[in-house]
Here is the input.
Amino acid sequence: MKPEKLIALALAARQNAYAPYSGFAVGAALLASGGEVYTGCNVENSSYGLTICAERVALFTAVARGERKFTALAVVAGTEEYCSPCGACLQVLAEFGGDIKVYLANRHGAYRETTVAELLPVAFSLNANA
Ligand code: THU
Here is the structure.
């Protein structure tokens, strides 16, 4: 799938963001190896720490559907800057492979291509001290 298509799906998912506290809506679209796309948006809560990011919503939805292999993720916010996943989301993504491509997009759909491993080069691993 072309990055532009995945980014368009992330932009569409962003429309459903529930972000009354920050006003910062994020959309994500995750491409599984079989070609299926799973989308997510951020969902905030009045107990702020319970907020979940768009990326984890997309990933957890996919995993709950039985997916385990992913090839690409698009992330988009309403900013001129490219939107990068937060550290927590990168750690969760790293569980499923550092080689997942990440398209960091801006509000216009312009993007920069990177990978989970590039964004989080030294992810936590239970094997680190084994
Ligand atoms: N957020 C995401 O959805 N993804 C990120 O990678 C970073 C931040 C959300 C969380 C919160 O609802 C809002 O953006 C502001 O931090």
